[in-house]
């Protein structure tokens, strides 16, 4: 199988950067395009039952975009070390498997490479498994990086 376009969601964690390194290695081997995305929640308080000021949201958004840009710049540097040019994009929306899968479909990728924190037991029960949700909701192949 040959890949043409790989999608890598990054969140600034060590495991997401490991996924970038793996995606870059695959992209180099198949001479394909790779895009790293970082998702910024437009309204982190949606569904909250309290009122908040627009100043708090504005401050949140400024910081969230700065963090996403910094994360994507680090991802670019990791890919460049392997001689791979990484496309990057900040996606506005909910931080969810749906957002990752919709982005993958919109970009017509044929592989998603993402990290998994490997939570188990109560952590997995309470926090869920983001990678598992992506895997369960897509028909696109998903490569899960565990370390």
Question: Which CATH C-level class is it?
Answer: Alpha Beta
Assembly form of the protein: single chain
* Largest β sheet strand count, sense and barrel closure: 5 strands, parallel
Q: How much helical structure, as a percent, in the residues?
A: 40-55%
What is the 3D shape? globular
Q: Please give the domain count.
A: 1
Order of helices and strands: EHEHEHEHHE
Number of strands: 5
Please identify, by name, the CATH architecture. 3-Layer(aba) Sandwich
Q: How much is the average pLDDT?
A: 86
Q: Which band does the percent of strand residues land in?
A: 15-25%
Uncertain regions spanning at least 5 consecutive residues:
121-127
Radius of gyration, whole Å: 16 Å
Features:
147 residues; 5 strands; single chain; Rossmann fold; 5-stranded parallel beta sheet; alpha/beta; 48% helix
Chart the SSEs and their pairings.
Blueprint: E1 5-9, H1 14-30, E2 33-40, H2 54-81, E3 86-92, H3 97-106, E4 111-115, H4 121-127, H5 130-137, E5 142-145
Parallel strand pairs: 1-2, 1-4, 2-3, 4-5
Helix pairs in contact: 1-2, 3-5
Structure description:
- Residues 58-85 form a coiled coil.
- Its main location: cytoplasm.
- It is found in: Cytoplasm.
- Belongs to the universal stress protein A family.
- Residues 3-146 form the UspA domain.
- By secondary structure, this protein is an alpha/beta fold.
- It has one domain (5-145): HUPs (Rossmann fold).
- Helices cover 48% and strands 20% of the residues.
- The chain has 5 helices and 5 strands.
- A 5-stranded parallel sheet has the order 3-2-1-4-5, sandwiched between helices.
- Helix 3 (97-106) crosses helix 5.
- The radius of gyration is 16 Å and the shape is globular.
């Amino acid at each position: 199988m040959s890949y043409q376009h790989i999608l890598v969601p990054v969140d600034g964690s060590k495991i997401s950067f490991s996924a970038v390194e793996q995606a870059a290695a695959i992209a180099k081997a198949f001479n394909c395009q790779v895009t790293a995305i970082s998702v910024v929640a437009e309204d982190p308080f949606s569904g909250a039952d309290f009122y908040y000021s627009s100043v708090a949201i504005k401050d949140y958004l400024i910081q969230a975009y700065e963090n996403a840009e910094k994360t994507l710049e680090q991802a670019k540097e990791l890919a460049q070390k392997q001689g791979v040019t990484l496309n990057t994009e900040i996606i506005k929306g909910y931080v969810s498997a749906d957002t990752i899968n919709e982005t993958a479909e919109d970009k017509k990728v044929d592989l998603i490479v993402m990290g998994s924190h490997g939570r188990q037991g109560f952590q997995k029960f309470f926090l869920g498994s983001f990678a598992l949700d992506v895997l369960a909701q897509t028909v696109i192949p998903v490569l899960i990086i565990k370390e």
